[in-house]
Amino acid sequence: MKSVFQIRDSIIIDDVLSSVEYGTLALCVDNTPYSIPLNFVHDKESIYFHGSKKGKKMQMIYENTNASFSVVQSYSIIQSYFSSNDLLACPATHFFKSIIINGQIEIIDSYEEKVKAMSLLMEKLQKEGGYKPFTDKAYEKMLNAVAVYKLNKKNLTAKFKFGQNLSDERFDMVIEHLKKRNTKIDNATIEMMLNQRIL
């Protein structure tokens, strides 16, 4: 990864993990990879997930606890002519934020930690509340029936691609094209481009 795209600030990384709703968990057994899109919540050094206690995913976790998890926050597609007049396709790209976390999966047996994980997940996905807290006895049967597991982080890489590598001329060309296209995501992309250009 080019160092110009790398993000090391834990506050910025936590902000992405708090705002992205789902990511992809990658597992591997007998040299056969398997990836699953999942809702998640992060808590310090861990990423929590939940799901069925049975099935391919859980069987693979029992056989190999090593895993990789990735999230992407998508921004604008950048057409080739947004930054070049040479009529080649090569300058076409996509701006984004991405995070990859590698580590080991741990299946949670503790009822208290299940309560914590599911509470954090609901706080993330349903910020307005409107549900009984998971400490309520109404959840006891459901929490005992669900699998809750976490990815304990070994290493993390974060990449933000917003034209940091472009010359001033090409960078300004992209900004002008995004302003003309003027979609909501284009305006958010311009803001991120300018923010990352300063760093």
Ordered list of secondary-structure elements with their pairings:
Layout: E1 6-7, H1 10-19, E2 22-29, E3 32-39, E4 41-43, E5 46-51, H2 56-63, E6 66-78, E7 93-107, H3 111-125, H4 140-145, E8 147-161, H5 168-181, H6 184-198
The residue ranges in which pLDDT falls below 50 over 5 or more consecutive positions are: none
Just name the CATH architecture: Roll
Shape: elongated
Q: What integer is the average pLDDT?
A: 95
Helix count from the secondary structure assignment: 6
Under CATH, the homologous superfamily reads Electron Transport, Fmn-binding Protein, Chain A
What keywords describe this structure?
199 residues, alpha+beta, Pnp Oxidase, Chain A, 6 helices
Short description, anyone?
With 199 residues, the protein is of the alpha+beta class. It contains six helices and eight strands. Helix content is 34%, strand content 35%.
